Structures are given as C-alpha cells and as structure tokens.
Amino acid sequence: MRITQVSFLFVLSGILLLWGCTKDEPDTNAPYDNPSYTLEYGSLPAPDQPEDNPLTVEGVKLGRMLFYETALSGDGTQSCASCHRQANAFSDTAKLSTGIRGMQGKRQAMAVFNMLWNKNEFFWDGRAHLLRDQAILPIQDALEMDETLPNVVSKLSAMTTYTDQFSKAFGSSEINPVKISLALEQFMNSIVSHQSKYDGYLAGTQSLTPEEERGRVLFFAEYNSFFPEKSGADCAHCHGGANFSTGRYTNNGLDSSVDFLDLGRENVTGNPNDRAAFKVTSLRNIALTPPYMHDGRFATLEEVIDHYDHGLKGSPSLDPALKNTRGTGLMLDVQEKADLLAFLKTLTDYQLINDPRYSDPN
C-alpha cells in the first residue's frame, strides 16, 4: 500500500511539474482573440464596413504598422506615410508627391481619411475598385515605392514582429499580398475625421463667427445669374453631404481641350465624356492639404476660389453646372471670398492630426 501511495504521489508531482512548465504556452488549436474595433464617427452617417474585412483591433494595429513600414519600398526609404502625413490630414504638401530615389509622381497625393464614406472607386481617376486594391498599387509603382509584392512578403516574413501580428490579426503567421492589402484597408478605414469646428456647430456646442456664418451661407447657396444679390458660391453642388464630397468625377475647368495633359477618368473608362475628369475630394481639412487639384497647380485656397469665381476654362466635358457660371463667374466680391475662406477653415479637424491612434507606432 505504501509503495502504491508513493508511486501515486510521484506521478502526481510529475503531472504538476509538467503543467507548471507548459501552462503559459498558447493552445495552437484555440481560436485567436481579435475583437471588433470600435469605430468613432460622431454625427457622420453610419458607414457600411466591408463584410469580408470588418475592422478588428489586431487588424487595424497591423495595418497601422504596415502604413508606416519603409520595408514596403525597394530601398527601405518610403512608406505610405511618406506621402500621407498625419499633420496634413494624411495628405502631402508637395505639388507632385516624391517617391523612391527622389522620383516625382504624376499627381498630388490625395488625403486618406473617411474612406468608409467613399463609395466610388479610389485614386484621382478611380482606377482602383476597392481600398484594398489601392493600398498595394503604390508599392509596385516605379515612381512611388518600386518594390515587388513577393519581396515585401519575404522581408516581412523574416520579422518576428510581423509574423506575430499577422497571427493575431488573421489567425495565421503566413504573410501574403491579400492579407497585407486587407490590413492596410482596415487601418485606413479606421481614420475618421468628424471633430471640426463645423461639426461642433452642427452639434450645438460651438458657434460660428459672423464671417464664418456668411461663408457657410455662400457655400450652400446656389448660383443665380438672374438675382446676383441672392447668388451663392454653389460649392455644395460638388461638395455636398456630410463628408463634403459627392464622390463624382468631374472636369472642373482647369484646362481647355487643347491644353489637356492628363485625361483623368477617361484613361480608365475610355469614355470621352470623362475627359479631364477627376475625383471630387472631400473639403474636410482642406486648409491642411495644400497644394490643390490633381496636379497641385494652386498653392492656396484663395487661388482655388478665384478659379471657380472667374478662371474656368471651357471644353466639351466641362461639368454642366460649372459651365452655367462661365458667362458671369460667381460674382463674388472681396469680402465674400474672405467669408467663404473663413468657413472652409471651420472644416479643419485638429483632433485628427493629433490623434495617437493614427500616429507612427515606432
């Protein structure tokens, strides 16, 4: 009997010792813990998240890491954040964005925020159907990051930090281009701008100055050539809605037909009606994102306002609403232009550019 008890105690001690040595090791058969990411969007309408790529805590974290990762470029100098800086509402202040080895791109970098409210393709010409498609194209562009996806996968797979985070985000340490694109999409979809002074005005927590209020009225009032005293700047025609963009592609009169250097949307659709048409960008944070237009031709918002007031060029594909104003211009006086500019500045979201959730994690 005593021998049996001693044997039992010996076996039990062995089991406890083994358990003590292994209890902290993860169960590889257990489901990975990756809760849903809580998206904050204030008074913006509820967005539709991609059903096949909903935001998760670990997915957004991985996308943030990749967004700031210079290993995505051929020489290790460029990341997505190189041309999409948080301080500039995830845009660029260069006229034409500069990529690898100092190479200049062909267009000005678009701002990256409120992507979940973007329902009409991506890039200035809409050549990317989904945000995940857009996310990996700059990596492969010779003027931007000039790298191959197999090389990116190889580099990331050699970093334990990334194999661990891909496991947390997707349940497997395997790294491939699809997962990279989905993670980047998640992070960019998590960047939301909804805390401007104008948002506070709508919520009743902030007041507009008299100048800002006059600018607000001008912004939303329609152009009226028959009653100049009641005519507005008609900005909401293209920049309407909660995100201050219709998301359409329009020829906004930058050049006449003989001066077109970039055919814009027509290069994608092949439709002559889309000639020199470019995506209507959101006016949120517009004061933080100079220069302006797809080619960065306007250095200031004053120049932009002057363009729409009296600088429109005619061409067959010019937006019809803009075409209607060419005879008289918008008829804005100096004070009205100043008022309109004051209102545009109320769309700046200072919380966005200082939010640590979107900053470089390194």
At a glance:
This protein has 362 residues and is mostly helical. Helices cover 36% and strands 1% of the residues.
Report on this structure.
- It contains 13 helices and 2 strands, in the order ααααααααβαβαααα.
- It has helices at 2-22, 57-67, 131-140, 149-157, 160-170, 177-190, 197-203, 210-220, 266-269, 301-310, 320-323, 334-345, 350-354, and strands at 249-250, 278-279.
- Helix 3 packs across helix 6, helix 8 (210-220) packs across helix 12 (334-345) and helix 10 packs across helix 12 (334-345).
- The chain is mainly α and 362 residues long.
- It has a two-stranded antiparallel ribbon with strand order 1-2.
- The longest helix has 21 residues, at 2-22.
- The chain folds into 2 domains: 57-192, Cytochrome Bc1 Complex, Chain D, domain 2 (Orthogonal Bundle), CATH 1.10.760.10; 197-352, Cytochrome Bc1 Complex, Chain D, domain 2 (Orthogonal Bundle), CATH 1.10.760.10.
Tags for this entry?
disordered N terminus, Cytochrome Bc1 Complex, Chain D, domain 2, 2 domains, mainly alpha, 362 residues
Major β-sheet strand ordering: 1-2
Compute the average pLDDT: 91
Rg of Cα set:
26 Å
Name of the top-level CATH class of the largest domain: Mainly Alpha
Number of helices: 13
Named at the architecture level, the CATH assignment of the largest domain is Orthogonal Bundle
Main sheet overview? 2 strands, antiparallel
Question: What's the end-to-end separation, in Å?
Answer: 63 Å
